[in-house]
Structure formats: C-alpha cells, structure tokens
Amino acid sequence: MKCRVRGRVQGVFFRASTQRMAQRLGVTGYARNRSDGSVEVLACGEAEAVRRLREWLWSGPPAARVTAVDCERLEVPPPERFTTA
C-alpha cells in the first residue's frame, strides 16, 4: 500500500517514527519526504500489519498534525526492510 500523509509531517520525526512502527509490525517499505511537504509511505507485508500501520499514520509522532492520509493498493515486489529517505 502506498500512502501520502499530509499536514505537519516534516521536521517532526515522522519518517523515523514510521520506520520504528513498521519494524515493530514486520512491515517493509519506506517513508520519504515529498517536495510538497507531505510524506510518502510504502507499506508491504501482512494485511493486518499494513492496516495497523495505516491507522497509526493518522496520528504519527507527538509533534505531528496529520490532516489527511490517502492510500492506494499497489502490486510491487516487497523490499527487504523499511527505510527512510
């Protein structure tokens, strides 16, 4: 699943926090900043784990203020781990 997270999500440790949560859930993929101020997240793994990460994206770390999480399903080969860029 690929998601775009909007709001106050850059400069608040959103990517690092997403990586920690993904690793706890056994999800691989990435979190990276976009030039428009959003964060893009690719989440690959068991459906329940991906669903839980998607729910978590709505809150993120304490300093984040999420206003939207838009997701779409993708068919891509899953990465070996979760990274940030």
Explain the overall architecture:
By secondary structure, the protein is of the alpha+beta class. It has a single domain, classed as Alpha-Beta Plaits (2-Layer Sandwich). It is 27% helix and 35% strand. The protein is built from 2 helices and 5 strands. The protein has a 5-stranded mixed sheet. A hairpin with a 5-residue loop joins strand 2 and strand 3 (39-44). Helix 1 (14-25) runs antiparallel to helix 2. The chain starts with a strand and ends with a strand.
In short, what is this structure?
With 85 residues, the protein is an alpha+beta fold. The protein has one domain (2-78): Alpha-Beta Plaits.
Overall structural class, as computed from helix and strand content, comes to alpha+beta
Low-confidence stretches: none
The H/E string reads: EHEEHEE
Provide the gyration radius in Å.
Answer: 11 Å
CATH architecture: 2-Layer Sandwich
Lateral arrangement of strands in the main beta sheet: 4-1-3-2-5
Biggest sheet layout: 5 strands, mixed
CATH class wording: Alpha Beta
Mean pLDDT level: 96
Number of domains: 1
CATH fold category name: Alpha-Beta Plaits
Q: How many beta-strand runs?
A: 5
Can you give the helix content as a percent range?
25-40%
List keywords for this structure.
globular; 5-stranded mixed beta sheet; alpha+beta; Alpha-Beta Plaits; 85 residues
